[in-house]
Design brief:
Elements lengths: L1 E5 L11 H14 L4 E7 L6 H4 L3 E10 L2 E12 L2 E7 L1 H4 L10 H16 L8 E5 L5 H9 L10 E6 L7 E2 L3 H4 L6 H4 L4 E2 L2 E3 H8 L2 E4 L2 H6 L3 H4 L3 H6 L4 E3 L29 H12 L9 E5 L8 H6 L1 H5 L4 E5 L4 H13 L4 E4 L4 H10 L2 E4 L9 H7 L3 E5 L2 H6 L12 E3 L4 H15 L2 H13 L4 H17 L1
Parallel strand pairs: 1-2, 1-6, 2-5, 6-7, 7-11, 11-12, 13-14, 13-16, 14-15, 16-17, 17-18
Antiparallel strand pairs: 3-4, 4-5, 8-10, 9-10
Helix pairs in contact: 1-21, 4-5, 5-8, 12-16
Length: 476
């Protein structure tokens, strides 16, 4: 099969989070199963020169978007049997950050329309076009609304993946014709209308041939208004084309036996070397060096739905326990400010790293003992799987993919971490105390580490499920 992935970020070229990781690994896993795979993404100025110097200019076209005709350059690069296309327009993509501009709706409408136009220009026709999150939600909309019955688009099946329904691409209805270049009938007919405005994600759910989410539990959760953020009725109406497929992780990148960023490489057979990583982390972050004191860590976006409010509300109580606490991430200003202040209050025991630092993240995965993820919502979560690869036991709230990957049952030999169900700080603290007590039982702790480190969280299994979906669509 020929599969084209379209996304706003793809590792290792550019990424801000899990979406980039997924699009960096899934296409390669699908390609390894004898499929022809290509990927389209914007050519951001943020892409490092390491990659920018290797891409090759192919051609340029002009893309119609409402009343404008806009330049779009096409660049190409092949890596690990996957062809990557970079769509260039400096006005839209020469920005300091990938997201957060006042005109993001217009920027990604241009990218989506350009991607659709380029399908007819690359000399290769996909059987499946797989789009991801609101930034590419207009791709299936443009294909079905502007090219009905027209080849090659009529024969292409579309898949849309909801990585996080919190971000739906909601805009005022006046953008429909003037900015997005779409007929108003899509608004008044209900396809994209949402609460008096436009929801790009709703349009994709309505017009795609299949919709996936990033874990089975998240697919179930989206039936309820708390999780679906207003789209529960749309999702219920299209339940028949929904599938939950658990994300994987790049097991080559996240391999403690080969990771060049950590103090000592180790495997399940040499787990004792993890202590060297812990000492290195403690020295690096100014924490007291103590093997007997558990290091609890978070690598996260500092946002309310990540459960930061639970941690903040009980941070003093946590620091009354025999533990050290490490946080790495950026986010809402008041959380950043508070963690910085608490670091001053608990010098040598609490380390707040208000930054984005992939190398430090690797050191934290390898050197910590517990990885805390008390998220209010978490569609899949990759960090709990990564932490288990490094022998760091996750402590999570049972939601989304964390419910699918973390087993907490003292009587179950498959236990690989700790979890709590209700979203409240008392339950979180109860399980944290249980985890710190178990940390003193080295045999029990090692047994749980062994389960986590030997689980298959690779993309191989997930890729097979996507391929099965693609084959099913192709036959229809």
């Amino acid at each position: 099969m020929n599969i084209l992935y379209i996304a706003s970020e793809v590792a290792p070229f550019v990424k801000t989070g899990g979406l980039g990781d997924v699009l960096g690994a899934l296409p390669q896993a699908v390609a390894s199963q004898r499929n022809q795979v290509r990927v389209m993404l914007p050519l951001y100025s943020a892409m490092p020169d390491e990659w920018r110097t290797q891409i090759r200019f192919v051609k340029y076209i002009y893309v119609p978007l409402a009343w404008r005709n806009l330049y779009c350059g096409l660049f190409e690069f092949t890596k690990d049997d996957v062809v990557y296309y970079f769509l260039d327009n400096e006005y839209y993509f020469r920005r300091g950050d990938l997201y957060g501009s006042f005109d993001d709706g217009e920027r990604f409408a241009f990218f989506s329309r350009a991607a659709v136009c380029m399908i007819a220009e690359i000399g290769w026709t996909p059987d499946i076009v797989h789009c991801n999150d609101w930034q590419t939600a207009l791709v299936p909309v443009y294909m079905r609304a502007l090219y009905p019955g027209i080849e090659p688009y009529a024969s292409i099946k579309t898949v849309f993946t909801i990585h996080n329904i919190e971000y739906q691409g909601r805009y005022d209805q006046y953008l429909m014709a003037n900015v997005f270049g779409l007929p108003d009938t899509l608004m008044h007919g209900g396809t994209m209308e949402f609460m008096g405005g436009i929801s790009l994600m709703k349009g994709a759910v309505e017009l795609s041939d299949a919709v996936t989410t990033v874990s089975p539990s998240y697919a179930d959760e989206l039936r309820y208004s708390f999780f679906a953020k207003g789209l529960e009725g749309v999702i219920d109406a299209h339940r028949g084309k929904f599938t939950g497929i658990l994300n994987g992780i790049d097991t080559r990148l996240y391999d403690p036996a080969e990771d060049p960023n950590i103090a000592a490489n180790f495997s399940i057979e040499t787990i004792g070397k993890k202590a060297e990583c812990k000492r290195d982390l403690q020295r690096l972050l100014g924490l007291a060096e103590s093997e007997e004191t558990p290091v609890v860590a978070m690598v996260t976006r500092l946002a309310a739905h990540k459960g930061i409010d639970l941690v903040i509300s009980r941070l003093d109580a946590m620091m009354d326990m025999e533990l050290q606490f490490v946080v790495l991430g950026r986010g809402e200003w008041h959380y950043e400010h508070l963690f910085n202040n608490m670091q001053n209050s608990y010098a040598g025991r609490l380390s707040a790293n208000i930054t984005y630092n992939p190398t430090l993240a690797q050191k934290i995965y390898a050197g910590a003992d517990l990885f805390l993820m008390p998220s209010q919502t978490e569609p899949c979560g990759l960090a709990q799987m990564i932490s288990m690869r490094y022998g760091t036991l996750p402590l999570v709230r049972e939601t989304g993919g964390m419910k699918d990957t973390v087993v907490y049952d003292p009587a179950n030999p498959k236990s690989n971490g700790f979890s709590f169900s209700n979203y409240n700080s008392d339950d979180m603290m109860h399980v944290l105390r249980e985890a710190c007590r178990l940390y003193k039982d080295k045999a029990a702790w090692r047994a749980m580490q062994a389960v986590g480190m030997t689980q298959d969280f690779s993309w191989k299994t997930s890729a097979k499920k996507y391929i099965e979906l693609y084959k099913k669509l192709k036959k229809t």
